[in-house]
Amino acid sequence: MSAAVPLSVRSLTRRFGRFTAVDGLSLEVGPGEIVGFLGPNGAGKTTSLRCCCGLLRPDAGEITIAGASLHGQPLLARARLGFVPDQPLLYERLTAREFLDFIAALYHVPERLAVERAAEVLERLELGEAADELIETHSLGMRQKVSIAAALLHDPPLVMLDEPLVGLDPRAARALKDLLRERAARGFGVFVSTHLLDVAERLCDRVVVLNHGKTVAEGTLDALRGSRADATLEDVFLALTEETL
Amino acid sequence: MIAVRVFRARWQAFRNTLLPRHGRRRSRRTGPSRAAAVLGLVLGLLSFAVVRELIGLLVSGGGGLHDAALAVAAIVNLTLVGLLVFDLHEGLSALLVDSDIDLLRRAPLGPASLLVLKLFDALPRTSLMLAVLVTPALFAFHAMFPLPGWSWLLVPVQLVALWATPLGLGIAGSLVLLRHVPARHAREALGLMSTLTLFALWMVNSFLLPRVGEPATSLSEVRVALARMSDATAPLPGAWMGHALERAVRGDVLHSLAATAMLLGYAAASVLVAVAVAKRDLEAVQTRILGGGMRHTGRVRARRPPRATGARSLLGAMITRDGVLLARHWTILGDLLVTAVLWTLLPIVVSPLFETSRPTLARAMLLALTVAIGNEIGARTLPLERGALAWARLAPNPPWRWLACRLASAGALAAVLLAIAAAGTARALDLDAGEIGALLAVVVPALGLALATGVWAGATFGDPRWTNPRAMLAPAGRVVSTLLLLVQGAAWLGLSGLAAVEHSGAVRELAVPIAATVAAALALVAFTDAARRLGRADLAEA
């Protein structure tokens, strides 16, 4: 299963009325690859991710998750995906542990295994002590940690994260980056949308730059730098998004 | 200056919502706002027709201008009570939990400016009843007793005064109360207040309705009842509105202006009280409410879930989760219990108006409860999940299974409430086993249909940003849900009456099975459509 391409997107288009938020987007996340999804505000990153996880219905295009078509085999595709949204999707009046217990049932994860995995992720993200407190008492960063734990609970071949570092303290951010690298080392795919260019530069094997709903660049950082070997990702990003204005 | 700019931004947001510019991305609220506007227009026309008919009947029954003005006064007073019961929470929500509160609190605006600004913000959400009840009533009054042109110039002023009076007092009282509620429960208190107001209103009504209804067998007696009501409510704004209209038609400019001045006086006093309380308490209450979710002291420690081998079933997980959520969302549970009590009592309240036998009364009580509780619980089922409903689309479960589990979970709660009410009613009215069996034959399909249509309403009109447990649906959804409730209640009560009629054995024996079959088919249609919506809708709140 992990040999299949974790994420393949072909000609994804999504419109809101007359406004085209994503325009023919195509990309791939290979096995063991961490791909960064960059773009200015309103470029269509969140819309793309929501289409890829099934929260929004695309107007056109084909999305395949670890070999399962999101349109043709939606249940299989969803079972192979973990999604961390930009706003955590939590039940505020549950504790983190109760919430993860519920999510484990949704993904048909054996309870003992779910408890072990949740404990491991929560421990690594340093949320263990707060796991028995109501989520409504949690800070944004703590909620984000619960959301990350929920996405990893069923150990999916692909994890998509929308601005996952927002609200996380440096220690938790580091722990998350380590977790993602470990998943990549196991041959799983990671697709991460972020506006933190230094994070993308250090974490990602490859980046896709989106502007006005279209891909304006894609490749490794070295390839994007081209002849400007001393350029930072910030320089490259600004140059790319300026050119397409 | 800042306030003016904020007002201008509000106007632009309102305009962009209703009339988005060509080529721009449409707001998520555009569709619902337009639908609400159309619905408001329809309701307004309906109100106009009903009030014009009422005034016409009064006049044809020997009444005159004075009686018509009393009728309008009664409508105004009822509307103001309705505004307090149904819309006060909107004003409070605008003031305390709107998404822009944090931003506005950082701006150099005083509590008084903030209060006025947020009151204006809440205007579209809190003026619906004035727009669809009072305004059409004024036009209906004008249709029978034409108002002079100058008095129409006063109408906007009068309407604003009528809107501000209950809202100002309600907000002032709520702020004082919220100041003393523990911070952790402040948000719940917002919802609880309107539930308690509704409960109190029903209790008062349950004593008043039979007294008003009993003697009202002729138009002349309706006029007497209106006069009595007018005496009892003389100090209220509705009475002054009636005075203003009556005097205007008589050409008495001075007294009409004086009555309008009284209305303005009420409004000014109400707003001044609200401003005074806001200056003292608003900042503290906002801090308590906004900070309530971030406190790290006094945390609620929850019991660890049992650890077992194997995956839990979706149904089991859903029922456990719903049980925990409802126990912790105690205002919602309280609201459901209040609703259960009120709807069970409804047939008793109106029983003096009709001659009813013991089993008929029991049937009516349980059917009213069944339809209402099924609808109320069903309609809350999906909105209760807020943005986390997205898990229905993220997790590998088909929408129909998610919905079936939610329905089963909601049904379990409804069945418990219903069983308690049925046992109590059977014992109080001394029903035998046969009568109980006949009751259940109607109640069970009624519950299934009400739950399914309730869930459908929740899937179609649910508002994930709800702040009040009685307003989890968008305004249009609340109207549709109420209509569904009334139609189903009337249909089941009618069927129940038909089945009880002795003269036709065949009809009596077939009516309930046929109705149960039809109910099952309708429930299936509602369920299928709700599952389709859950599976296809853009979950933009996620």
Helix content of chain B: over 70%
Number of helices of chain A: 9
Please report the distance between the alpha carbons of the first and last residues of chain B: 36 Å
Total strands of chain A: 10
pLDDT averaged over residues of chain A? 89
Strand arrangement across the biggest beta sheet of chain A: 6-7-8-3-9-10
What is the count of β-strands of chain B?
Answer: 0
Radius of gyration of chain A: 18 Å
- The portion of residues forming beta strands of chain B comes to under 5%
The low-confidence runs of chain B, each spanning 5 or more residues with pLDDT under 50, are: 293-298
The termini of chain A sit apart by 40 Å
Question: TL;DR?
Answer:
The complex is a heterodimer of chains A (245) and B (542). Chain A has 245 residues and is an alpha/beta fold. Chain A has helices spanning 45-53, 74-79, 96-106, 111-124, 140-152, 170-185, 197-203, 221-225, 233-243, and strands at 7-16, 19-29, 34-38, 60-65, 68-69, 81-84, 158-162, 189-193, 206-211, 214-219.
List keywords for this structure.
heterodimer, A: 245 residues, alpha/beta, 6-stranded mixed sheet, 4-stranded antiparallel sheet, 24% strand, B: mainly alpha, 2 domains, 79% helix, globular
What does this structure look like?
The complex is a heterodimer of chains A (245) and B (542). Chain A has 245 residues and is α/β, with parallel strands linked by helices. Chain A has helices at residues 45-53, 74-79, 96-106, 111-124, 140-152, 170-185, 197-203, 221-225, 233-243, and strands spanning 7-16, 19-29, 34-38, 60-65, 68-69, 81-84, 158-162, 189-193, 206-211, 214-219. In chain A, the strands form 2 sheets. In chain A, strands 6-7-8-3-9-10 form a 6-stranded mixed β-sheet, sandwiched between helices. A 4-stranded antiparallel β-sheet of chain A has the order 2-1-4-5. In chain A, β7 (158-162), α6 and β8 form a beta-alpha-beta unit. By secondary structure, chain B is mainly alpha-helical. Chain B contains 20 helices and no strands. Chain B has helices at residues 2-18, 30-60, 65-96, 101-106, 111-121, 123-126, 128-144, 149-180, 186-213, 219-232, 237-250, 253-292, 314-328, 330-350, 358-381, 391-394, 399-428, 433-461, 475-500, 505-536. Chain B is globular and about 70 Å long. The model of chain B is unreliable at 293-298 (pLDDT under 50). The interface between A and B is large, with 47 and 49 residues.
